[in-house]
Amino acid sequence: GAGVSQSPRYKVAKRGQDVALRCDPISGHVSLFWYQQALGQGPEFLTYFQNEAQLDKSGLPSDRFFAERPEGSVSTLKIQRTQKEDSAVYLCASSSGTPSDPYNEQFFGPGTRLTVL
Amino acid sequence: GQNIDQPTEMTATEGAIVQINCTYQTSGFNGLFWYQQHAGEAPTFLSYNVLDGLEEKGRFSSFLSRSKGYSYLLLKELQMKDSASYLCAAWDSNYQLIWGAGTKLIIKP
Fold first, then answer.
1. Is residue B26 left, alpha or beta, with left meaning phi > 0 and alpha meaning psi from -120 to 50?
2. How do beta strands B103-108 and B9-13 pair?
3. How far apart are the first and last CA of chain A?
4. Nearest Cα to Cα of residue B99 among B21, B13, B6, B15
5. Which of B96, B98, B103, B104 best tests the A interface by mutation, with the highest count of A CBs <10 A?
């Protein structure tokens, strides 16, 4: 596609529900990142995929958070047993190279705004 | 620890020039990005610096001093559409982007 797309754009969940957030990166992009952005803050790194391999998940806040990219394209971020503190915008970004490539711009999707009641 | 500091908010007048500063402390350094983010939208790329000096791109310029851990974004001929948050992000030694909280820029007519 022309850019990174994410769905749903908005999600309201009751505390304790499981949610799944989808990211469609730019076609052919090797790298895919998930970020969490609280209101008025910068994005916080969650996890990184290079093709289908999850190379870094050091930013996932708890074992309730799980991400996958089984075929190296679409990715899903799953949050189990959602808590109020999970309320944030979840941003997905993709890039054509790997992080160690020079000048590796990340292209962001519009984000999914998750509200946990 | 790793830290990015930038002012929370700045105000400038349409047609003027504004400089947004960013200081960073990271475990290693592989370059610095500036992104623009309008309210409710995704960040969009503005600039990338990895070497010391000034990079100019139209009305926007970005400067980096690696020895000082310092960067700035310079916006000239400000337009109302430049009202947005400007995010500074540094690449650490693990190629993880460490983000600042963003500077909200308010443009007044």
1. beta
2. parallel
3. 33
4. B6
5. B96
- Yes or no, beta carbons of B48 and A105 under 8 Å apart: yes
Dist. CA A24–CA A73, nearest whole Å: 7
Report the gap between the CA of B62 and the closest CA in chain A (Å).
Answer: 15
Q: Residue A56 and residue B4: Cβ atoms within 8 Å? A: no
Residue B8 CB contacts under 8 Å (≥ 6 apart), including other chains: B101, B103, B104
Residue B94: what pLDDT?
A: 78
Question: How, if at all, do strands A44-50 and A53-56 pair?
Answer: antiparallel
3-state helix, strand, coil in chain A (%, to 5): 5, 45, 50
Beta strands in chain B (DSSP E): 3-5, 9-13, 18-25, 32-37, 44-49, 53-57, 60-65, 70-75, 84-91, 97-99, 103-108
Q: What are the 10-residue block averages of pLDDT along chain B, 109 residues in total? A: 92 97 92 92 91 94 96 97 96 86 96
| Residue A23, CA atoms < 13 Å, CB-side half-sphere | 33
Question: How is residue A80 written in tokens?
Answer: 């189990």
Q: Is A42's CB within 8 Å of B42's CB?
A: no
Q: Which residue has the higher pLDDT, B63 or A39?
A: B63
